[in-house]
Amino acid sequence: MSSNKRVIRNSFIYTTSNILLKACSFLLIPIYTNYLTTDDYGIVSIINSFTSVAIYLIVFSLFSAVFRFYADIKNDHCKVKRYIGTICTFCLITNVFFLAICFCTQKIVSNTFFAGVDFFPIVLLALIYTSTNSLYTLYQDILKSMQFAKKSAVTSLLYFFVQLVICIYLVAILRLGAVGTITAYVVTQIVFCVWAFVDLNKMDVFQFCIDKELLKESLMYSIPIIPHNLSTTIAQYVSKLFISGSFSLSAVGVFNLAQQFGLIADTVQSSVSSAFQPWLFEQLNEKERTSKKNIFDLTKMLTWAYCFIFILIGFFSKEAIEIIASKSYLPAWEVVPLIVLTYAIKIPYYFYVTVLFYYKKATNKVFIITLSTSLLNIFLSALFIPELSMIGSVLADAISMGSRVALVIVFSKKFGDVGFRLWSIVSRIIYTMVIMGVFLLPSYLNGSIGTLFEILVKIVGVLVFMAGILVFERKNLGNVKVIMLSGIDKIFRKGERE
User: Fold this and answer.
1) Contact of 133 with 59, CB cutoff 8 Å
2) How many domains, the chain?
3) Is residue 316 part of a domain?
4) Nearest to 252 by CA among 28, 36, 39
5) pLDDT for 26-47, tens place per residue?
6) Cα separation of 336 and 331, whole Å?
7) What is the dihedral of CA 397, 401, 402, 407, to 10 degrees?
């Protein structure tokens, strides 16, 4: 299978599975809004955000190292086995230390990181969930680095199904509230952590060991990337703590619902990036003239794909919230388009930062960029949220993300031209923002404008957006058609073994 077809296929698999996961997760929202108090929903939101931050710190962001180093050693089975074994063993050890330290500092942990929630049982369950989550995430990234897209997707979907069933039983039937929700998370994680180690052993790519040289090299690569991996999650986590402190846990619950829609946008980008990153590494390794054209063509297609998804989320979030949640959550829709536009600003970041990941010594640049802009985000959140609530959080995200994108572009260009065309990407983002702003105006004006009229306006907006794509790409429609058809043919044809 050619590398171009592989990235298209894997992008499709990752994106489809993750979109399905996000779509299915909305099934839990009616359960949360009917069986959890707004305070309980706020607690669950804070715990999820804490986990998203802590998993990178516990294992020193070694997930990132797996992606990069596997590309270099994939043809040496013995080295692969020893490398994955080293990473997994080290992560097991760090998780034990994490749980021990947190248990010995219960009050500090509860008051500082969980808005004063009692340690027993919720915080303790949250810490166990965080620890097991880091191990399962490592397993998923190992599969992605080996380009086992189908196995990764199937495992993820099965994981969610098991979690959904347990959550429904504990929350909707036994009425255990936030405790039931977090317990469902913990049980699912334990089951799939066992699954992960059994599967790695079955594939013969794992052994308990610590290779000091491999570990040292991986840590030198991964530690500077920690701020990068935390860049979005830590901002969301801190924002929720600020909202809880300035307003209430109930306000956190409403904001969390808005973020669920926004995270669909990020899911699309991160899913595609999981396939794009190893593909770009291959293109850069080849150092052929055709590589730049391949990179340029693919980034254009991906930018349009991102923007189309963003348009759909931004336009129809209001109607979706009206269907899946109670009226008390409806104010959440007003910030969804703003959150989506923040992720639109992030599009060039995913492209250009991959260049820095390719050059191992450039990870210190990523460290500087993400650390500085994350600190800026926290500062702006503290400044804006007490006055502007949810809007303040989104505004802080947008400003810090714009700064991060600019710095990444500047640093990556020092390594030469790899095929990206900045104006090509930016012009499509600007076009998307204009369309979204114009055709969402009736919804924001509200007043006497009926829901049916709002929907019709949004549908027209989608059609105008698609017409704009035809104008932009009128000279390249033939190439786009060929690439898409080849990818679709591969997706639906019984393909080659990975």
Assistant:
1) no
2) 1
3) yes
4) 39
5) 677 777 767 877 788 889 989 9
6) 10
7) 150
